[in-house]
Amino acid sequence: MSTDIVVLPLQIGPADGPRFMVKDTLDVAGSPTRAGSRTLTDAAPAAAHAEVVARLLAAGWQLMGKTNLHELAYGTTGINHWTGTPRNPRWPDRVPGGSSCGSAVAVAQGLVPVALGTDTGGSVRTPAACCGVFGLKPSFGRVSRRGVMPERSSLDCVGPIARDMDSLIAAMAVMTPNFHTLPVVPPSLHIGLVDVACDTQARDAVHGALARTRHRLHPVTLPLFEDAYRAGLAVINRENWTALSPLLADGRMGPDVATRLQRAGQTTDAQVAEAEAVRRAFRAEVDAALSQCDVLALPTLASPPPRLEDAADTSAAVSMTALVRPFNLSGHPAITLPLDNADGLPVGLQLVARHGADEWLCAVARSLSHQLDLHASLGEPA
Fold first, then answer.
1. Where in the numbering of this chain does the Amidase domain appear (predicted)?
2. Which of 23, 100, 153, 367 is catalytic?
3. In-domain check, residue 284
């Protein structure tokens, strides 16, 4: 089991239970939470499991380890110069995506059917799309963040990355106390195709796939989409500066993350206030679109993942989250399904539903994955 993927091997729970791993920002009792950072080398062992970990273990799941990540969960590429960078199984010359890279690669490598990540600005959906697997950002507040780093966030969600929709749904049913039986998806849906800035092949992949279904497709414009992306950056910058800036003092933070965090410290109160105004307006805009459509659809990635050699500048690579980050700001549930462009490179099919309608989103995603024969790109266990 590669240490680039699994930073702490474990075996907790019944040997015959469904296997899972968790990103090393989730507490596991008796183990330190280091978040892929040398600054937390001396972190004390956690006193208790994160609530979602405890729920899965109580339901008979088997925890197999803690997974690697982009340092301090503050990056989009998954490149980590201290713990190592997990290798993207199907596209080894491309980044695995961040920040939940280890969880996505563990699933794509076939180590476990489910691994938990966290998604503050696309950090479940981006690596899931980069590695060709399934990944869900639940509605904000739907899944407990107790025992998750950072302690406070208005954006972050714990979500499953999985090899298939049935495994993802099984995990959500345990992680979420009030996760109900999935509704029946009717033969014809009204799907809103969101007009976003992306490359032609990403747009063609999504439109072409959905055109093969029997569903009604309708163009949707979200005028505040790019404003919401920038607002999401302002909010995460302020919240991460508050949570992580004390770790700068010992000088052990990776230079890419340290530089980004120092820039985040320059975020002004006025920028945060403006971002919160955009949050309210954009949430209403998405709600209005979803009052006319059953789900929204768009690519997960605006273009294929960058090559490793081109992704050294973390700040420049933040644009990888251009199509996912707005839904962290709005709080709506969003899921990515594996979808390649015409060149065989991953772009992902992203679906978005009404706030709180996570069961509906999962039902639609499962239905579409069957209709379109969308499968995870699984490698062999390392």
1. 13-361
2. 23
3. yes
